[in-house]
Amino acid sequence: LCHVSIFLLPRMREVDLGCGKALLIKENGEFHAVGHKCPHYGAPLVKGVVSKGRVRCPWHGACFSISTGDIEDFPGLDSLPRFQVKIEKEKVYIRASKQALQTQRRTKMMAKCISLSNYNLSSTNVLIIGAGAAGLVCAETLRQEGFSDRIVMCTMDRHLPYDRPKLSKSMDSHPEQIALRPKEFFCTYDIEVLTEMQVAAVDVKNKIAVFKDGFKMEYNKLLIATGNMPKTLSCKGKEMENVFNIRTPEDANRVVKLATSKNVVIVGASFLGMEVAAYLTERAHSVSLVELEHVPFKKFFGERVGRAIMKMFENNRVKFYMQTEVSELREQEGKLKEVVLKSGKVLRADVCVVGVGAVPATGFLKQSGINIDSKGFIVVNKMMQTNIPGVFAAGDAVTFPLALRNNKKVNVPHWQMAHMHGRIAALNMLAHGTEISTVPYLWTAMFGKSIRYAGHGEGFDDVVIQGDLDELKFVAFYTKSDEVVAVASINYDPIVSKVAEVLAAGRTIRKRDVDAVVFLSFRTGDMSWLTGKGS
């Protein structure tokens, strides 16, 4: 492929092998070659970050070992293919299969259930309640670790696990288009999925899950990964036709169909509400957004960033009605016609989408003895264990100790974090004693602009911004007591992934060092400052 001397700078290159490309990396004097695209959404890893034996995706933060290609942090399910590298007479050679170069992904080896036919239908070794990212990653991790006993997942949904973030980002996607794994995968690896099955109670003393239809299933180990349920409006007319919470692919598809060339009102400038607004703008006649705060995302991104995002929406014909809420939904012939605001304003509306937050779906656990906090979240330790032996919990419905914030108990309802929760839970079902230490990472996409975010900025007291907010090309550092606790960016890749690597390494970034961080990581590409100790 090349002479070793071309690797003085940079440390990784995308190389063409004729029938496909590979990512060639040099770290600590050794060469490695893996797939060049992130298996999650196909991001070019050459634009990501290499640090301490792994490469981090520039888009959504997934991490892969450069020596094995194995996925080490999420989102996504598959690993990278690894290719053989050899050096002869200072020339670099790669040996790779055509199939691996073309697929650019590798599913880890997994065990199967060795005696599935011998099981009682009402008994399983591992029961997973919920079939989102946490549940699926838990099941896959168990199989990857050689677990060959029965695994049953159950879900209220009609579908096998799917890419839930796309419900608001790509609303006309059909279930089969956003499936995380095909039906054959679950058959091949003996992961049973019971759809449209709701657990009504859990008897932890006798290790029995009781379903809504009366069916009972015994378990040995239990994972609760039920996620959350959307909040509904409390005003008159909330039950009428054409008022939606986006919970399923069918919900999203129906909203798109009904909104085309019609008037849409979205209640709540949440991530879901804003993503739905952005998606429907080109399809609807009008899009109005009602929000109690005076700036979208103020608590999450801060007022200045929130105003810049709001301006982008206004430039794309979204009309905001801020510092007010809905007092009534009016109908005509049984269908929504108007949304009445407490400010007195009356909005024409053919469709209303409600995005005013969510609550943990844990009501069925109230009498179980499992520790639930005052907000309804399941309390777990760093190994995703509840207070009941053999019962684990993961995903949006839990609070857990976040290492990044001195083990403060937090709820992080991010897609990436749900994946990691599922993996940690599975490893500890197998008594590995693995603690969670990942850095939260999320993203959103609106009007072709991607916002990346890493860390946990809850309670930040200042925001340091580099770049141009008006041009939507900036990076924002969120600080608390002089320490950077989170970072967000638009059009500043891969700064968020680089800062995520710093935080993952246990380093501290002070407010006074932000200028240096941006210069060293973004302008020079130098990551050597990662290896320093302390701050």
Automatic annotation (TrEMBL):
Pfam families: Pyr_redox_2, Reductase_C, Rieske
Gene Ontology MF, one: 2 iron, 2 sulfur cluster binding
Principal location listed in the UniProt entry: mitochondrion
Ranges of residues in domain Rieske: 1-94
TM regions (residue ranges): none
Keywords: 2Fe-2S, Apoptosis, Electron transport, FAD, Flavoprotein, Iron, Iron-sulfur, Metal-binding, Mitochondrion, Oxidoreductase, Transport
The keyword Metal-binding appears for this protein: yes
Alphabetical list of InterPro entries matching this protein: FAD-oxidoreductase/Apoptosis (IPR050446), FAD/NAD-bd_sf (IPR036188), FAD/NAD-binding_dom (IPR023753), FAD/NAD-linked_Rdtase_dimer_sf (IPR016156), Reductase_C (IPR028202), Rieske_2Fe-2S (IPR017941), Rieske_2Fe-2S_sf (IPR036922)
CDD domains in the cross-refs: Rieske_AIFL_N
GO biological process: execution phase of apoptosis
GO cellular component: mitochondrion
Coiled coil regions, renumbered to chain: none
Localization, UniProt: Mitochondrion
Cited Gene3D superfamilies: 3.30.390.30, FAD/NAD(P)-binding domain, Rieske [2Fe-2S] iron-sulphur domain
Function: Induces apoptosis through a caspase dependent pathway. Reduces mitochondrial membrane potential.
Family: Belongs to the FAD-dependent oxidoreductase family.
UniProt-recorded name of the protein: Apoptosis-inducing factor 3
